[in-house]
Amino acid sequence: MKKIGGGLLVGSVIVISFTGIWKIIVKAGTTIAEKNKLVDKYKLYFCLNNKWISLKESNKRLSRYFVENQIKSIAVYGLGDVGLNLCDEIMKDGIEVKYAFDGNLIRYESLIPIKRLEDEVEEVDAVVVTIPDEFEAIKNNIGVKFSCPIISIDDIVYSV
Amino acid sequence: MKDRELLIAVPTANHPKLIMFYLAKTLDAALKHNIDICVYDASSNDETEKIVQKRISQGYHNLKYKKYPENTLLENRCEDIYVNSGYGYVWLCGDGCVLNIDKNIDIVRNEIGKKKDLICFGCFGNASVYADGYKEYTNSVEFCKECFTPSTYFGGVILKGSLVSKDLFDYCRKRYWEHAVPAVYYELFKDGNISATYIHQNFCESSVYKKHSVAQKQRRDIYAFAQLFTETIRKLPDIYNPVKKDLEKALGHTTGMYSWCNLWLMRAEGNLNLKIYIQNRKFLKIASDTKQWLYILIILCPAKVARRIALYLGNFIYDI
Asked: N or C: lower Cβ tally within 10 Å for chain B?
């Protein structure tokens, strides 16, 4: 009886250990995949901002893109660093940023009204998405709401 | 550069984002150094054309565009590039291989000034082997032995524009199929004489938007590298016979294609499975040093597990 009990105990310990190790391995794989995704994201942002800086060095403005495409008013999706830099630059050149969508609704006290996707909003000439790594998903999400072009920030920066 | 001295030729098909990024990174430098860029486009829609035409309208008079019917083979466009471009030198470049023109222009100008037939860039092998970071060649067999792998990269070779005739390219296309382009370099110099320079330098960066090659997306990676390259090497002119055995494994050694780490990645992405292994087994034995039992072990592993192992080994995995 003691032997059986001892065997059961050892067996349980082994099973629990393997289960624990397996869970760690699975979690490690998920974590690595998430980190890799972040690396790719920041590579995109690095290249984007690198190009943006070189545009500034050669006195090229992002507003040129909007002028060439007859876009006078826009909405911005994503009002993080990239979104704010975009708005700062183009508003100085007379492009109207009517409103923005951002998850952090109460974070900004800005001249740009922050809206939710569910809100009724005015028509704009274009919506600019400032999150290049999630552009396709965002475009599919908001495409039903807007009939105007939905443009990614990298299309703008790499076209000027 | 003098007018029409150097052309950067970029064949592309249905990669508008890659072209947009490529032009954003290279146009200003190309304009500054009087280098022309031409996009040879076989896309099924006009997205790439719009991007290029917009750039031309912005004042980039050094940018050219040529449209082909959809699905025009890459070799056909390359023939047009090498035979009909009319430039002193042609730098054939992939749309995902973004040239660093400012970094390389002085070297390129210097070698063009020496009237070299071929200038090859690469960053394979031990840099200390190359005094001053480069090596000049007058013997095509020696060049083939040492520079075969970098010469197969789209972006690694600048070729004198007047060298390739239509007859030669047609011959290479019929004989070497998809590898007509690298084969042309060795058919051209089959008399043993070449005036070439290999420059040990990283000449480009990979586009952030490029995740897979065309061969990887079509799950033809092993077929393209093991079978096609082996057949190409074997078909090269007889003058290269002394080095063909070395070339067979050269690609694997220099690129790490058949390394433990990369095989798990290929398994995870669907570029290595039982069917692919059986079809290419003979050529895998020739092209790689990896033991056959390792291939079997990896193939028998479920793709989900292979994906996890590939991650642990430091690979980035993108869905095809």
From this structure: C
Question: CA separation (Å) from B145 to B140, B243, B251?
Answer: 9, 6, 11
Of chain A residues 37-66, which have a CB less than 8 A from chain B? 39-40, 43-44, 47, 51, 54, 58
Out of 3.20.130.10, 3.30.1440.10, 3.40.50.720, 3.30.470.10, the CATH code matching A61-157 is 3.40.50.720
To the nearest 10 degrees (0 to 180), the angle between helices B180-188 and B140-151 is: 160
Cα A14-A15-A21 angle, rounded to 5 deg: 85
Task: Find tokens 């050892």 and name the residue.
Answer: A10
Q: Which residue of B has its CA nearest to A157?
A: B24
Q: Which domains does chain B have, with CATH numbers?
A: 6-206 (3.90.550.10), 236-312 (no CATH)
List of chain B residues whose C-beta atoms are within 8 Å of the C-beta of residue A44: 208
Q: What is the ipTM of this complex?
A: 0.87
pLDDT of A113-159, one tens digit each?
A: 888 888 899 999 999 999 999 999 999 999 999 999 999 999 999 99
The pLDDT tens digits for B28-63 are 999 999 999 999 999 999 999 999 999 999 999 999
